[in-house]
Amino acid sequence: MLCAGCTSAPPVPTPPPVIVYNACPKVSPCPMPGSDPLTNGDLSADIRQLEHALKSCAIQVDTVKQCQDEIDAKAQQSAKSLN
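Structure tokens predicted for Holin (83 residues):
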């Protein structure tokens, strides 16, 4: 039973949802070169090719990781500003 002078409390406002768009570059497979060395020179060349492929893959991973870290930091700042 409500008294005549009582009203229900207004609804608690809820903050709008925070939309975070993931604009990080897509990851592509990192192909590893095949190998069939016949001489020590071939083996050395294969090692250089493999090292180059691994460096290229690591650059891609580092780029995406940095992008994700930046997005996470922005999302945390947005969440803190809502509280």
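The first helix runs from residue 40 to 82.
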